[in-house]
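$ ./design --mode recover --in tokens.txt
reading tokens...
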């Protein structure tokens, strides 16, 4: 990448270009979510916090890669959800009951980095108070330098503080061989300064809001699903024995970007041969061989929302008898689980419907994970863990259904024709009032259809 400081003669041309880019971003961000929607989400959060309480949510930290180079930035999902602001250095305050600020009734405040002309010229990423107001609909937007003084005043009169987690909550001080507990110490200092103040995490409250998706959120996941499926179709057509896993990743992710995805929702998994049995393999370095199956578990992120799709295919376009047998079982399991999805059903019953098919076929020990999770702003979206008593499905939830069978080399209770074979099939489904609707229909999953697409570039 180029260094941060540009030679001055480039600045004018870049400024014009960047102004166009910024304008396009603002337009794009408005496609799915209006300030009214963010406002109603904050109202829903307010209804869950005490009237004598307030919530403070910090944006994600910028992660340093080395020197003055950062990793690509991605906003915290909770802050995106409640305010739509994509920049670091942003803090959102949601008040349990309104306060009077300069004669105005204020329910929420946003604190953002001060506008910097220099930053606008160099990165195009400066935001004015007015722009932040337009995006978020917050009652008041102020510069983030004022956050400390504001909190000092407001915490003196509030009884409960909900806050977002410190990331990371602790750091290792290896010079002194000790751990610095940032979050614990911050909470301790607050309680000393404001006796009687209760300090709680805000994330469970926001999670309870995020679990059922709005109409616009479903539209965002559908768009992510469409782009994701297009990427898989391009990948299938580009596959042939001898192709490297990373070449397939490049085809996939270039399709994502060309179709408007900002990034992937999680590192792309392209696992061939032995790697198909490793459920979280994402090194993507192996050269494929004739006879391999390839598991691709991937998701494009569009406007903050990700899809999560898995397809498995033979690199040479022909499943072996053993591969086809496993594929048929997993597909049957997936269809059985999808058929079980409707409001009121517990997520463990959905898991069981799919798992039973694999158990009956005699491959119980080769299914090593739960079959479902919520998907949305995060690939493993909060609110539906499979563990809680309250994990019954509700209309508007978006969940994945992803059974699999993974047989490593050396498995001693199966024929060796099954070795090094991982099969997983995953779709995203919207729970509807009377059942569900599969959102990721853009790429087929019947064995013959998948086979006919592999290497087929016409
Ligand atoms: Mn998944």
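writing sequence...
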């Amino acid at each position: 990448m180029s260094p941060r400081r540009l030679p001055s003669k480039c600045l004018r041309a870049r400024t014009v270009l960047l102004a166009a880019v910024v304008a396009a971003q603002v337009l794009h961000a408005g496609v799915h979510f209006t300030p009214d929607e963010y406002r109603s989400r904050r109202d829903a959060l307010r209804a869950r916090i005490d009237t004598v309480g307030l919530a403070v949510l910090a944006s994600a930290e910028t992660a340093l890669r080395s020197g003055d180079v950062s990793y690509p930035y991605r906003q915290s999902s909770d802050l995106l959800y409640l305010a739509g602001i994509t920049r670091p250095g942003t803090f959102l305050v949601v008040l349990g009951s309104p306060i009077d600020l300069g004669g105005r009734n204020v329910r929420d405040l946003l604190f953002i980095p001060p506008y910097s002309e220099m930053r606008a010229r160099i990165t195009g990423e400066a935001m004015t108070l007015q722009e932040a107001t337009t995006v978020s609909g917050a009652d008041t937007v102020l510069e983030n330098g004022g956050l400390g003084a504001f909190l000092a005043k407001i915490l003196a009169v509030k009884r409960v503080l909900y806050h977002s987690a410190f990331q990371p909550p602790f750091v290792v001080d290896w010079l002194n061989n000790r751990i610095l507990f940032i979050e614990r110490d911050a909470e301790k200092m607050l309680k000393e300064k404001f006796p009687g103040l209760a300090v709680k995490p805000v994330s469970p409250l926001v999670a309870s809001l995020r679990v059922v998706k709005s109409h616009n959120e479903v539209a965002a996941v559908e768009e992510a699903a469409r782009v994701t499926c297009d990427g898989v179709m391009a990948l299938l057509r580009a596959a042939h024995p001898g192709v490297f896993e990373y070449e397939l990743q490049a085809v996939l992710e270039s399709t994502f970007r060309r179709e408007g995805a900002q990034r992937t929702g999680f590192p792309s998994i392209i696992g061939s041969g032995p790697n198909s049995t490793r459920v979280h393999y994402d090194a993507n370095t192996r050269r494929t061989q004739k006879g391999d199956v390839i598991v691709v578990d991937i998701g494009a992120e569009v406007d903050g929302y990700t899809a999560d799709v898995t397809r498995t295919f033979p690199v040479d376009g022909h499943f072996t008898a053993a591969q086809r047998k496993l594929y048929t079982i997993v597909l049957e399991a997936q269809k059985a689980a999808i058929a079980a999805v409707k409001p009121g059903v517990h997520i463990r019953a959905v898991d069981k419907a799919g798992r039973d098919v694999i158990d009956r076929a005699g491959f119980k020990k080769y299914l090593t994970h739960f079959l479902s999770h919520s998907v949305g702003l995060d690939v493993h979206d909060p609110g539906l863990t499979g563990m809680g008593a309250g994990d019954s499905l509700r209309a508007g939830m978006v969940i994945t259904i992803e059974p699999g069978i993974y047989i490593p080399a050396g498995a001693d209770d199966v024929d060796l024709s099954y070795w090094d074979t991982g099969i997983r099939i995953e779709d995203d489904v919207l729970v509807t009032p009377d059942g569900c609707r599969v959102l990721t229909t853009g790429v087929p999953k019947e064995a013959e259809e998948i086979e006919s697409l592999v290497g087929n570039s016409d």
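exit 0
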